[in-house]
Amino acid sequence: SSEPSVHEQAVVPVGSLPLQVQEFLLIDDLLYVMTGIEGKYILVQPVKRKFSTRKFVTDQSLDSSLSVLVKRMLPLCTQHSFLCRFIEEYSQFEHGVVAHALCSAMQSVLKEYYILVAQLEHQNRLEELSLQKMWFHLQPTIKIFDILHNISLRVVKGECRGGHLLSLLHTLTTGYVGDPSAQEFCLFLTQKACVPYFELLEQWIYQGVIRDPYAEFLVSEHRDVRKDRLKNRYNDAYWDRRYTICRDRIPIFLQKVTDMVLRTGKYLNVTRECGRDVHCPGAKEIVYTLKERIYVDQIEEAYGFASAQLLDLLLREKDLLGRLRSVKHYFLLDQGDFFVQFLDLAEVELRKEIPEISCSKLEALLELALRTSVVGTDPYIDDLKIQLFHCDLVTQLTQIMTVLENQGTEYSFHGSDGSGFFLAGFQSLCFDYTVQWPVSLIINRKALVKYQFLFRFLFLAKHVERELNSVWFSAKTLRHGRQSTYEWQSTALTLRQRMLNFVQNFEYFVMVEVIEPNWQILECALQKVKTVDDVLDAHSDFLDHCLRDTMLTNSELLKIVHKLLVVCLTFSSFMKRLTVHEENSSYEADDDDDFASQLQDVPQSLADFERNFTKHVLGLLRKLQLTPEDGAHQMANLASRLDFNGFYNSKMDRQALVTVLR
Amino acid sequence: KPYEESKNTSHELSEATLIRDVIFVVQGIDGQYVKFDMSRDSYVIDPKVGVPHSVRTQVAKIAELGWLYRKVRSYVDSHVNNKALGLVGQSFCAALSQELTEYYRLVAVLEAQQDISGEKGVEALTLRRLVVWTADPMRRLHVLASLVDSCQDQMGGALSSTVHARLQCGDPFELSLVRQILNQVARPIRYLLDSWIYEGELRDVFDEFFILCDAAVSQDKLWREKYAIREPMLPSFIPIELAEKILLIGKSIDFIRHVCRDRSPIGIGSKAAKDEAIATVELTFGDIPGSPLHQSVDLAYRETSKRLLEILYTQYNFLGHLKAMRRYLLMGQGDFIRHLMDLLEPELEQDASHLHHHNLTGTLESAVRATNAQFDDPDILQRLDVRVLELSPGDTGWDVFSLDYHVDGPIRTVFTNDTVLRYLRIFNFLWRAKRMEHSLASVWKSQMSRAREIHWMTELSSVLHVCHTLGASMMNFVNQMQYYITFEVLECGWADLEKAVTQANDLDQLIAANNVFLDDVTSRALLGPNSKTLLRQLRTIFDLIVQYQHAQDDVFTSAAAEAERCKKRRRQRTAQGGAAATAESGLGFADEDVNRMEARLKVLAKSYQGAVRQFLAGLHTHDDVNLKFLSFRLNFNEYYDWVEETLRD
Questions:
Q1: B-contacting residues in A 133-192 (Cβ below 8 Å)
Q2: CA triple A237-A410-A424, angle to 5 deg
Q3: By the CB < 8 Å criterion, does A203 face chain B?
Q4: Between chains, do A196 and B170 touch, taking CB under 8 Å as contact?
Q5: Is this complex scored with an ipTM above 0.85?
Q6: Which of B283, B69, B291, B296 lies closest to B164 in space, CA to CA?
Q7: Chain B residues in contact with A5 (beta carbon < 8 A)
Q8: What is the pLDDT of residues B358-396, one digit of tens each?
Q9: DSSP annotation string for A258-284
Q10: Inter-chain CB proximity B5 and A91 less than 8 Å
């Protein structure tokens, strides 16, 4: 758009020339305008904004029919102008590699177009061209330009880039099923535009690397999420957050395999970070075609390879099964001899309240117990740690459940409730376990917390059993005591026996009927797994089933069981107090009035204990028989086990009878 | 004939003339009508000539080529003879020239075309055809011009990084061009790299390679200080981890050649890789592990490091020295240390100024000869020496005595002066602890041997009781400390070190392993910076033990003197006859003497208990878990808590 010079003004009005000359000059002018240069008779109007439509003005004096023909061809010029501006803008770096490739393809189309223009010019100079002929020759070009214009317009409007742009091209291509030539052209464009994107894809699924400077790839990497912070976090943030899918960047033709693509690269990454070489044997260039199967097959192959690599690494090199077994030893007490020893050693310490407990002492005692027991040969023995919780199991569980119900995401376990009330060591003791990367992918914080629940539950039961047993010890010493004790002793011991029976059966149920079968299922599953996600699934299934079947996820049942255990505990501490008094008073004179009055209440308290206990057991049995959930099978087992000889059943009947009679 | 007519009737300049001009212009030469206009920074047709507006625009579009050409050309011209630009800049210019040559070919073809008239007198070359012809060269020149723009005044690795940055583009046309240029630009880097990783030589005359050499550094500091990475010159296609590896390779070769004085060829695999590398100069760009560049570097790294470690292990007996450090400086050779202590004891009891190096060396030698140490490698024994630390007034020999171990040659890179000093510091600590054990043992010996002589002195029984209990609790303390130091600190650390040494792939890892070992031992043996108070408390306890030893010696000497006196008197009495048997009252200790002794011991005991309790409290609050365990171990049955209670009562 240089300024008009003097010589151009001296143009003869074109309408005054002979028609033949008019047509010749018009064609020459048109050819200029078609390449984006202002002609003599067809003038270009400036555009207001970058992507607004360019308009042309034809000379008024032109022959009217010729002028109509010319006007028919002008849209092509408009589109050309638009395309040129589009290419110039979208070849800029910030629009991303897909746009670059698309622009490059468009430029090659434009080059063809300039060749056509040169050919038309040649024909015109030979005087073999007329406007009609030219109109005919331009037909294919008009169609192509229509498509290009359509694409570029939508790109400009939608500000598309990367995967989104590819989706656009893909829909366009598949939309031209009825028009093979247009479809072929669209396919050409899409293929060209796909090349850099598929290069990114290849790098990711064959090497696990993302080099995506313009943020176009469907997986985005967050470099600030590091794996060394993994162990401090509750959730497996590294696995979930380091690489994420960006929904708006997925080309629709990869929609189905997105997850697979993400996982492939993630697996490769993990494998490489563990120092293994990842070199996918089936690595081939991926090309976009209309046949989806072809590239999906390639992606699946890469996925299979990556997954097998990581699985091999985990199972063989990192001895995942051994790890899980070791975790099971400690958290699920499957080789529990160390535990008895530990409790014997640490009893004094555990009776204290949390602030007074020396954690290092507990750990030293734990180590002593571990080293002298069967698990002493476990290679991962050093990873076990002691952790003291500030709230008891049931509170913790109910809190979590409420959080889950309210769709909360994270819950901090470590904060104390600030009430100034401290738990005793027995109520707060728990283990913790250090897991190294990459096994921490499987045994992550989430899984460990579940293990901790199971452990605390088992530990509670074990503790109750221990206490009840110690009641028996102390009762032994009382046997030959005074006359007054005989009366209630038998009641007390019967109650104790019933409690013990309950607790032991309950433990048996949890250990043998819930954990062991589920563990067997897990081991079998681990023999057969094909991918790492299978492992993750199998493991979390195992934990979830254990939690569900041990009633930890059913708050009603849990509350009853917990109450039962608490009744047992208070009973045993009550009995202990009695025996301590008894022993003291047997040495001293019998003038302890206070104690004597207390003794009078003993039968009454015992009756209370018994009533309470029976009430809860009956409640539990009723609930168990009613529970229609998936775990019903095992629960029914527990019910029949607890009420083996119909003892409680008859009680229940009698109770019902009483209520009816009343 | 409208075309002929329009040609003939036109008063305008003919197209052929213009094309002739344009062909000159695209080479940056002014034509007759088309000239470079400085004020507009572009080529324009002389405004006075009669040329239609559309043709002017067309010509201006084509003439952009000339503008781009001038830009590229002027860069090449101004830089090609500039030696300071270095090899990379030189190859960049060469690549540009090569592109320009291709361009000249095109211009020549165009020029030949312009004279040919086609069929029916129509020209073969028109402006529109020129547009088609020049479409691709235009794109190329665009890319080149923008490269030239961004590479202004850059050199070496930085230049290649700039070119590499242009690879982040999705246009295949531009991509292939940039890749081609980058290959050329990277060629000298590859050359420097190859000579560095295969020969260990830095042929970097122009300071453009990413490895920096400080020629002033002496041989024995070669490993640590001579070479470094020159960050700005690091090409962006070589990630920093790889660069560090590369640095290590060349450094290792230099080390092997100049410090170890070994000139044998290194590795066969890398030789093959080298030949291959020379055959295919092309670098693969990408920081993806597993690319050929990575592989060749990895191979060279493995072979070079392996060779270096091999030389250290075999020719310079690295492991032998390491073990010797463990045996002598860290007291692994128990019989030797014990015997040495026995021999040295009388000498070390004296004031420090009376120590003489040659006497000590003599003792050392006799200790070696009398123990299993004599079967050790003579080379190692020869390095073993005695060092007398700096004297400060009041020091006894115990405070300033130290063993020493001389290292030289390449091994010195691992055992630098600082490292050896750290070993000596640990030795000093161990020696002190050992001495406590030693002196308590001698205390016990004298208790046992004297007990019979003085058991009849009933008035001493309370003193002896305090003596025994205090001695026992000290013994327990020292034994537990010794256990902790030998097993929990040294053995555990040593096991880790051995593992790390066998796993070490290169010298750096070896050095790091040794440092980690020293760090561990230092911090666990209370020598770390945050256990200074603890160490002071421990010293106090040790001092108290020494005082206790003296106190007990005093008790026994006075008891012995008393016994002697008694014996003499009794003999006198017997000589004088049994008549004087009533005068027994003059015999035995006076009450005040006993009280004095007892009081002294009790004060000792009390301050000892206090010191230990302070020490325990310090351990308990220490960050290091191992030390917490130690406190638990020392106070296993809560003896000191009990003591505290009784004291409070």
A1: 192
A2: 115
A3: yes
A4: yes
A5: no
A6: B283
A7: 47, 51, 53, 56
A8: 888 888 999 989 988 888 888 888 888 888 888 777 788
A9: HHHHHHHHHHHHHHHHTT-----TT--
A10: no
